[in-house]
Specification:
With about 300 residues, the chain is an alpha+beta fold. It has 8 helices and 16 strands. The relative contact order is 0.17.
Amino acid sequence: MTAAIATTALDGLELVRRGKVRDCYAVGDALLLVATDRLSAYDVVLSPPIPDKGRILTSLSLFWFKQLEPVVPNHLITADVDEMPAEVREHADILRGRCMLVKRLTMLPIECVARGYLVGSGWKDYRATGAVCGHALPADLPLSARLDPPLFTPATKAPEGEHDENISVAESSAMLGADLARQAEDITLTVYARAREIAAERGVIIADTKFEFGHDADGVLTLGDEVLTPDSSRFWDAAQYREGENQESFDKQFVRDWLDASGWNRKPPAPQLPPDVVARTTATYREIHRRITGRDLSS
């Protein structure tokens, strides 16, 4: 296990933005995405950071980018620090294993969410309205029910400090235009279908996940940001799946559960995570990395 990194300050590189998890630097025409060990929940960054988390997110994203290349182009240029420009290599000790040099994309203003199971905010919406993001569903579906076919359920990208909100496909069409919205839906569900097959071979259910897409310099819709990590996805053990029940998740759901039990009102500042929650988060993230990639994270 490596020491946790909560933030970066890389001399000689221009910081473009600091997200909830990633620090983004300009490197010529490209961007350097640095996955820190910050953990967020309910759109609030928690403390302390989670050891190994940034390296796990990066390793998983690299695995999935390679697996999904036949389905969708991605923004990765290289994750090998030794292949990056000199101003990046100067920070190799900090960056190795937790950064990606990527193409700049013009990102879509929505998050592209695929849901294969009725859980989380989808379950809450269904209980309240009988629908999820405008998709009317049969009555009396149980918690964790498998959705066939999976649903495209877009969400807004809220400003920092505010919460993303589920929107309907019609609302996404109004934001993007009908053709681009249809393209975003099609590629989201196609990528999810392939990822679900790959995960199933490893005994893992991807209950839902969030993708980020943008257009590259040639106007090609491209997969960006991270992909299919425990920060952006809900992973279940296929052997333990039981319809009608809450499932044990290999992601940050138990952190949300701990926060809910603490009585926190979901407004900053969040309560400090105790050592046992921090340790369990690292262990959970390392375990899903092992299950998906077939190897342990290197020390």
